[in-house]
Each structure stands twice: as C-alpha cells, then as structure tokens.
## 1
Amino acid sequence: MNDQESYKILVDQVLDSFDESQNARLVEVLRSAVKHLHAFVEETGLTRDEWMAGIQFLTDTGKKCVDSRQEFILLSDTLGVSMLVEIVNQGATDKATDATVLGPFYVADSPPMEMGAFIGRDEDAVTPLTLEGTVRGAEGGVLEDAVIEVWQVAPNGLYDVQDVKGVFPNYRAMFRTGADGRFSLRTSRPVDYQIPVDGPVGTMLNATGRHSWRAAHTHFRVSRDGYKTLVTHVFDAASHHLTSDAVFGVRDSLIVDMGGPAATFDITLDAV
Ligand code: BEZ
Ligand code: FE
C-alpha cells in the first residue's frame, strides 16, 4: 500500500468514528477540523519534533491564560482567525457597518457619560478629537436609545486595564443616543500601539519577523433592542499600520480622516 492510500484509510477511520453521535453540528465541525489537520500534517510532511514543538507552543499558550489575559484569543487574532469569524458571521444585509475584532480590552459596564463628554481622565496633554455620528437601522431610520460603548488606548499607548500606574476607567465610556440618533464624544486622537508580546504569541511574531503594531483606532460596541449588536473600530487614516495591522482588523470602510478637530463615523445596525 502506498502512503496516499494509508493516509486515506486513516482519515476515513477517524471521520467514521463520529458516526454514532447525535450532535450533527458537532460532528460536522469536528470532521472538517480532522480533515484539515490531517491534510496539514500530510502537506508539510510534519516531523515528530515539529509536532511536539507545536504541542509545547499550545501548552505554553494555555499556561499564559489568566482572567485578565487570553493568549489563545491573541493567537486567533494574530493568525487572522478572529477576523475571519467576524466576516463569516457578518449580517445578512450589506448595509450594516462592517464589524471587526473585539480584542481583549473590552470591559462591560463602562461609565455612562453625557453627550459631548471627554472620555479620558486628564484633558491636558492630548491631541483633541471629537468623534461624532448618527446611528441608523439598515432600513434607514435613526435609532434612539442605542447604547454606544467606546474604548481606546490613552496617549501613552496603553489601555487603562494594562496600565498599572494609571487610573481606571480611562478612555472608556458609554453613551445613549437621543431621538436624533446622534452621538458625539471628545477624546484624544488614537495612537498606533503594540499588542502584548511577553507570551508565546510574541515569540511567534518574533520568530516569523512580524511586528506587533495595531493601526490607531477607537473601539465601538453598539447595541439596541431589535438590532444585532455591532462590534467594530474606527481607524485613523493617517496610521502607519493600516496595511500591516498585527491582527488583520482593518477594513477600508472603517477608515476616517482624524486630522481635523472632528471626525464623523456613522453607524448602521442590521435588524435582528
Ligand atoms: C485591541 O484592539 O485592543 C486588540 C485586538 C486584538 C489583540 C490585541 C488588542
Ligand atoms: Fe484596540
């Protein structure tokens, strides 16, 4: 029997081993994962040492995870899988604002603020920027009572949850739209910043000659009864990393000019 025949017999045995399951979706996902994993080993002619190195890498990734640090999500982000899941799960209409990755720095229950408020703690030493826009449904009407959560790095390139010397919350807030569907907030122009590299993901980036920079952005999570929650960012058109974002999160539709005192980012939500 040649190698190709042996590979086929083996993968079919594994695929057939799920035959008795009552969970059709689980079996569909597992069979696909097994097929691709076997094809990967076959295609690369993976050595035993390489397979063990991969297992060690995944073990180290698991060991790096604590409540405040999810290294597996960072791995998924830096391999483009998180972004792919967003694209695959995009809404049914092409009217909704494009989604992008949530990232690890979202915190539920951000402090509610009045429209027009400054979202940081220290209004000095910033590059002032007003972000404003209108929230609409895909059918075109403006949406009252939409909850807009925003978060971004401080001018020092750190999120409040990362900055042991800083205050919490900082550069994070929640707004609720009025009858006109509009929002407006004051912030500091976001800066490019580096994702955490003190774990296995950093080792992977280093070993492959990749950088760890994210294109400058402000995160938005927009929710409203009757509409699909949108998780996205607005990116600064002047960022140096728009075409090499470390987590592949940039979409052309999300890039705006932040060079002036104010930038507009209109948001459209798909109905549930
Ligand atoms: C972020 O934008 O906050 C982020 C996203 C993915 C990985 C690391 C950070
Ligand atoms: Fe971010």
Note: Residues 59 and 67 are 17 Å apart (CA to CA).
## 2
Amino acid sequence: MARTKDTHGKVAIISGPSGVGKSTICRELVKRLENVYLSVSMTTREKSEEEVDGKDYWFVSEEDFRRRIDEGLFLEYAEVFGSLYGTPADKIEEAREAGKLVLLEIDVQGARQVKAVFADAAMIFILPPSAKILAERLDGRGRDAAEVAAERLMGADAEIAAAWRYYEHMVINDNLAQAVDECVKIIENMRSANRQNNEG
Ligand code: 5GP
C-alpha cells in the first residue's frame, strides 16, 4: 500500500519540574537544531521583572485567556500552580506547514493533550540530579516568593511520578551540555525516522 508523504514538521515536547532548567535547554536546542520553532505560550501568571511579553510568554488577563478557550484558539491548555497556560494553535500549524520542528515547553497535562493530537510527538521529561539540587536551583533563581517556591517544589514530586508513566524519554540535567546533547539525539532520531518513512 502506498504511504502518504507527511512533510509537516514534527513536534517535540519538553517538560520537567520548575527550576530543572527546561528554558535553558530549549534555548540551546533552538541554536543546535535546524528549522525549528520554539512555541511562545500564553499565560495568566504575573510577569516577573526579567521576562519579556511576547518572548517568554504572552501575558494576558484571565478574561482574555478564557475567551480564547471558548474560541478554540489553543492546541492545549492547563492550570498550573493556580495560573492558566496554553499553546496558541495558529502559530503551531503555521510552523508545521512550513516543515519546521515545533518545540513545546509545557507541563504533563498539556503534553498528554498534545500527544492525543500528534501521536508521534517526542515526549522528553527533564529530571533534576536530586531533589536537593532542584530545591537549591529553585531558591537560587530567586524569581518566586518563598511560598510559591515551596508549592512548586511539592508539585515536582507529583509531576515526576506522572512523567514515569507517560514520557518515553527521561533526561537528567546534571550537566547542561550533556542534557542538550541527549535531547538533540532524541529529536534527530525522530526526524530521521520520519524522513525514512517518507522515502520508503
Ligand atoms: P512557569 O510559571 O515556571 O514559567 O511555568 C510553570 C509550568 O507551566 C511549567 O511546568 C511549564 O512547563 C508549564 N507551561 C508553560 N507553558 C505552558 C503551556 O502552554 N501549556 C501547558 N500545559 N503548560 C505550560
């Protein structure tokens, strides 16, 4: 039976607990991978001083976010630590149609929704070397108030437990360069498997 060629870009999901270094890994992946689009999520969370609207996130009101849910504008969305986060669908479709690899930095709930739409998406979960190091990194970035940091740390256990169940790739971020190398390999393997499929 003839196979239909799929020239659309593939999707790679990067998840992991707060403070594990996901954003740094994603920024490195954008430098290392060809033809890649890093999705900018929308959130109702308050913007921190270092963050830039439209670059780190699109920061919107809850009313605006809920209107977009009603209009079906999100590929996925979830409530995380009391705020809403979602992936705008239009940009993802544009990038996939242009054959770009789409990189999504989203939580486990969102990842499962995306996997339901794109069954061949690569799901990568970033683990800290230890709980102690994760706590130190969260303290060190100084972005969150003490209670928020504590809440994020508690959430890490549940998220890691869920990840063992749903993610096919677990990468430990002990050494940044090594973790990035592992992610590059996983994504390149997915892309070449797709290329072979199209050629076969
Ligand atoms: P933060 O507030 O630390 O930037 O993000 C909190 C959590 O929300 C992280 O686990 C992050 O991966 C997740 N997140 C960020 N954007 C999205 C999104 O668009 N959808 C979902 N489901 N989660 C997201």
Note: The radius of gyration is 17 Å.
